[in-house]
Write a structure and sequence with these properties.
This protein is of the alpha/beta class. Helix content is about 30%, strand content about 20%. The structure holds alpha-D-glucopyranose.
Length: about 750
Amino acid sequence: MKRNLIIASACCIFSFTAIAQKKTIDQKVDSVLKLMTLDEKIGQMNQYNGPWAATGPLTNDDKLLDQIKEGKVGSMLNVTGAKRTRELQDLAMQTRLKIPLLFGQDVIHGYRTIFPIPLAEAASWDMKLIEQSARVAATEAAASGIHWTFAPMVDIARDPRWGRVMEGAGEDTYLGSLIAVARVKGFQGKGLGNTNAVMACAKHFAAYGAAVGGRDYNSVDMSLRQLHEVYLPPFKAAADAGVATFMNSFNDLNGIPATGNKYLQRDILKGQWKFKGFVVSDWGSVGEMIPHGYAKNNYEAAMLAANAGSDMDMESRSYIQNLSKLVKDGKVNISVIDDAVKRILRIKFVMGLFDDPYKFSNEEREKAQWNNTEHRKIEKEMAKKSIVLLKNDKQTLPLSKQTKTIALIGPFIKAISDNLGFWSYDWPDDSSRITSTYDGIKSKVSADSKLLYAKGCNINDSITTGFAEAVETAKQADVVVIQVGEARDMTGEAKSRSNIHLPGVQEDLIKAVMATGKPVVVMINAGRPLIFNWTADNAPAILYTWWLGTDAGNAIADVLFGDYNPSGKLPMSFPLTEGQIPIYYNHYNTGRPAQNDSDRFYRSAYIDLSLYPKFAFGYGLSYTSFEYSDIKLSKSSFKPTEKLTATVTVKNTGNYDGEETVQLYIQDLFGSVVRPVKELKGFQKVFLKKGEAKEISFAITTEDLKFFNDKLEKIYEPGDFKLFIGGASNNVKQTSFTLTK
Ligand code: GLC
């Protein structure tokens, strides 16, 4: 009895302390809020870009740094480095209440060590590694005074003309949601306040990836059902994973700009999802509601954005210039201001910045993290697993390290910064730190191998004078490796392209070299799906090498020469032409579903084009081959309270050990709304030695069968389903089952 009493009282003390501890942060927030003037509160809702670098249209403001001292700034972006952040924090410490600044930065795929672009990482389908990638980025950024990264970008995108596909996880909601969680966990690590963790930011809220025509900043119009079914789940997953902040988006959604969209920010995010963090606008998007035609002036824009739930104004100056008058005019209630400021202050407490405003600005830690060999090792691993083998006829790959003469041709072979992609950083030592393809191959092949090199052409012009040298070089070789693609600034923000073919004369270069009859391996650097049909049909071997980051050359060499068997799977469908866009695997069946390309009167087929993409979602080859058994189901029907198990045996039937991503898709055959022909509902990565076989099982419950009906209820409906398992969305075994009432 006595013992129980002691335990019980200990628990009470503990829980009281815990409650007291929890209340401490809230109390501290309230205690600071009580001291603040209206202007000081509004200052916290104001974010400026530093005067040293910009990621949007800059406003000249020579009083910018003075305003920090005047308490008019709550956060800065694009201010990096232990030294510089310390300097600006010094200015904030001169304010009356000494409220520390938050420093935000676009650490999208690495900071000092640059990782593959997010779309490439998505091709790895490796959640653990994607989390590690974000972990390294956070560690390096936090060591450089950065508190907050404007990532992960979790916009689902089905249109490769949109340049920002490179920042996300592709076309699939299920895969995109898992990756959103992996990135949030990676960035925020063991918890905010640790000096190797940064606040993450789910962006761009919402549906920015559905811009009409793939044109950046363009309008978005869709049913709320599609919004909830396809575009919101990765944001919900990020929120459930504890993401510290959200960023809204430039686009209007169903006629209302996201920045002024109450439905998104208050009803869904802060209401239904009970989000406790804060929302930052995207660069200038508060003021951009004027050209949107939604606000007459910055006074109105500030009112609409604040009342709709945008807590912090990035760079538009609408808040700092108008909120005080809006409160006095009764247009914005002080409770709106207080709620926004409490959200911002709360995070500053959680980050420990009130206790030590300089805790992240530590030059010793910065130096230690920067040339960190462990980070580079993880980067190379991520890069290898991001590479997708699109074709390998006649086992052209892997190449032998003893190959006598190899011709290396193309404008990317010796590229350095073009391995980094958009949203990356240039450092003085890049030429020594970034491994080119040439250097990667040079360090891989035997001492007797001879490497020949010819650039052949530029990335994006019509000059063909280099072809002759390239052809001559190819003729002297036993095998040719050509590396073509997009320059790092050809995909990214404000980089929508109407023509996504291989740029310039690069495909002509491939044709000229192929004409020599030599075996040719083509590698394509890109930030998006490109169109290269001639190459795809004629080159014997193709690797999609994206933009792989700092150790690109070594990762590529590992794959080229078989030290790593490529395992990547495409996170986006590759269209045959721009005219085929949007094309994505999880489309509806329609009333006239075509079974093949000759069904002209079916599924709105084109009379001049195939129905199918060049490469499908989930597609990716290996140097080995994998055989799938028929699917075994634990039962042919199951009740909502039960689960169903689907099992296949996957066998490595080739000559190399390798990793396969076994994908599970489900089709709901009939519903109260039409349902996609298949939807990714699970996947498992399995490593198989040559000749080895393993059973892979998936447990299916009603959770996997839910969808949003026309009342926006997330439900499942009993009925008949098809179940698919395979190595690509268009290469599956199938079976069927019934969910009973
Ligand atoms: C940019 C981007 C956004 C980025 C922000 C700050 O315009 O849209 O993704 O985080 O501005 O650089």
